[in-house]
């Protein structure tokens, strides 16, 4: 038996130097099922455990460059969790304080983790964006009242620029330019937009497909210009019913809508057959990549994002009672416990 491993002679300069440069993983079952090469960018391998580390670093470095963040300053942000984790860790490394506003419906694991790493966590009731009590608006008001820097991940285009310069550039380099399509879900839209801009600058006909959960309006926006949401989803941190500044003008070719049952099936399939422990947004992404690959036909290369790890969703996504309560499939190894 031959064992191979990624080789690196680079020593990262602290946490900041360890963000990015994640591997592409060939998803064997998805590739074999479609006759395509389906690759997942392993963003759960970032030091903060998710793709949001990249946005956090890009936003903070941009704010520093523009003089909006001074030594010992405070960063304020509204987040579903992962961006808050990334911001808090980068803030710790840079000597800042972090105030994180989060809906109280998010997973217990993310709430506990944010408190553990030193975030000043403010939980608020989950309310739609149009409501002034929405977590994004609350975070903006706190920043205004305290003089903190509002990260504003949804409408701060430093987010997508960071992905254009890093995530997209890495995918192009790692595939040697042999990429036919890219798909991922959107919260802020930074990852999809930034990667799309990077890939299309090299290859204009690369296909960019937005993966959307039920309960989000972005699928309708791409398909017909209608942002009206439809249904609901258990996924956290993705789905949107407005066009953020990061999404505005992004070169997106198409969209697919993925139901929770289809996403959960992919999460459990990746766990049991490929040893990849991932969260619900990754399930959406992989399900979308399968659809895109089937549409393109055999022989193509499709890239998607493996956003974060499963451990942040244990109390929901890996809770048999929760899954049954949502009429979602429960894998045998969970149901037997």
How would you describe what is shown here?
With 337 residues, the chain is an alpha/beta fold. It contains 13 helices and 10 strands. The strands form 2 sheets. A 6-stranded mixed sheet has the order 1-2-10-7-8-9, with helices on both faces. The protein has a 4-stranded parallel sheet with strand order 5-4-3-6, sandwiched between helices. Helix 3 packs across helix 4 and helix 10 packs across helix 11. The chain is globular. The two termini are 34 Å apart. The N terminus is likely disordered. Pfam families: PALP. It is an enzyme of class 2 (transferase).
In short:
This protein has 337 residues and is of the alpha/beta class.
SS content category: alpha/beta
Number of helices: 13
Spatial extent as radius of gyration: 19 Å
Instruction: Give the overall silhouette.
Output: globular
Unreliable stretches, pLDDT < 50, 5 or more residues?
A: 1-6
Protein name: Cysteine synthase A
Domain Tryptophan synthase beta chain-like PALP: 18-308
Enzyme class: transferase
GO molecular function, one term: cysteine synthase activity
């Amino acid at each position: 038996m031959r064992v191979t491993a990624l080789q690196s002679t680079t020593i990262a300069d602290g946490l900041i130097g360890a963000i990015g440069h994640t591997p592409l993983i060939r998803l064997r079952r998805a590739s074999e099922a479609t006759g395509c090469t389906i690759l997942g960018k392993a963003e759960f391998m970032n030091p903060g455990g998710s793709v949001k580390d990249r946005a956090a670093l890009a936003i903070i470095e941009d704010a520093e460059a523009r003089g909006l963040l001074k030594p010992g300053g405070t960063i304020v942000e509204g987040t579903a969790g992962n961006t808050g984790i990334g911001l808090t860790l980068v803030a710790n490394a840079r000597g800042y304080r972090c105030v994180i506003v989060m809906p109280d419906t998010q997973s217990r694991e993310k709430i506990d983790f944010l408190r553990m790493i030193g975030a000043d966590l403010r939980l608020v009731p989950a309310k739609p964006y149009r409501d002034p009590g929405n977590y994004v608006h609350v975070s903006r008001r706190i920043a205004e009242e305290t003089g903190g820097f509002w990260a504003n991940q949804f409408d701060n285009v430093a987010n997508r620029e960071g992905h254009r310069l890093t995530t997209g550039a890495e995918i192009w380099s790692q595939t040697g330019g042999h990429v036919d399509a890219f798909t991922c879900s959107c919260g802020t839209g930074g990852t999809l937009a930034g990667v799309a801009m990077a890939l299309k600058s090299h290859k204009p006909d690369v296909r960019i497909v937005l993966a959307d959960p039920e309960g989000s309006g972005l699928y309708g926006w791409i398909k017909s210009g209608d942002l009206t949401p439809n249904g609901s989803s258990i996924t956290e941190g993705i789905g949107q019913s407005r066009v953020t500044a990061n999404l505005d003008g992004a070169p997106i070719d198409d969209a697919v809508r993925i139901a929770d049952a289809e996403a959960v099936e992919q999460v459990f399939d990746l766990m049991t057959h490929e040893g990849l422990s991932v969260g619900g947004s990754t399930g959406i992404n992989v399900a979308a990549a399968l659809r895109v690959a089937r549409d393109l036909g055999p022989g193509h290369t499709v890239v998607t994002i493996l956003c974060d790890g499963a451990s942040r969703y244990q109390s929901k996504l890996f809770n048999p009672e929760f899954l049954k309560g949502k009429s979602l499939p429960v894998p045998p190894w969970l149901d037997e416990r």
